[in-house]
Amino acid sequence: MAKIDSIEKLTDNRFLNMYLVKGHNSKGYHSNYMVASRAEQIEDLKISTGKNTPDGVIIYAVYGEKKDRVVLVRQYRYPINGFVYEMPAGLVEKGEDYHEAAVRELHEETGLDFELVPADPMYEEPRFTTIGMTDESCATVYGYASGEISDAYAEPSEEIQVVLADREECRRILREERVSLNCAYSLMHFLGDEDPFAFLGK
Predict the structure, then answer these.
(1) pTM
(2) pLDDT tens figures, 86-141
(3) For the purposes of burial, counting CB atoms within 10 Å of the CB of 167, is it exposed (0-12), middle (13-18) or buried (19 or more)?
(4) Order of strands, edge to edge, in the sheet holding 17-24?
(5) Of 4, 32, 39, 91, most Cβ neighbours within 10 A?
(6) Three-class DSSP category at 14
């Protein structure tokens, strides 16, 4: 098993930092590995804590009386200089439960209210998003959205369009648009089951 020899913090940003991790593996190969992290300090890295606490929360929200639309955001992202479809999501603040974060973030991003659906913890467990370059992990929550779309609570730095997509639109998005990986899998799931949350009771 590989071992870590040293960690150096390279940046001091609010939301994301870079760390240089030096280590060697069982074959004697020495690595200089760049890690992006939400951690503010070395002692906060998952390398240091050994804990998988969620940095963010992903929100799988269904909308409408017939529960036949899914809430998406079409958001501009600098790394691709374009828009991408995503599930609503956001960071979990220090001391905040990720369920509370989901309610807050959905309202901030979309103006909608959110009613959580109880789920077995294995469905909400924090999962690593892009483990090849970051230790970020996100929990996923499920529920029903209601109310009217509004951008009154959105961050000025965000460029977001809220989309209430029925199944036909979900198919079009998957065929024609740029889509984040977790969003694509959620849309496939939404298309496959008449009751999108039936699996939570299994």
Answers:
(1) 0.94
(2) 999 999 999 999 999 999 999 999 999 999 999 999 999 999 999 999 999 999 99
(3) middle
(4) 3-9, 17-24, 30-37
(5) 39
(6) coil
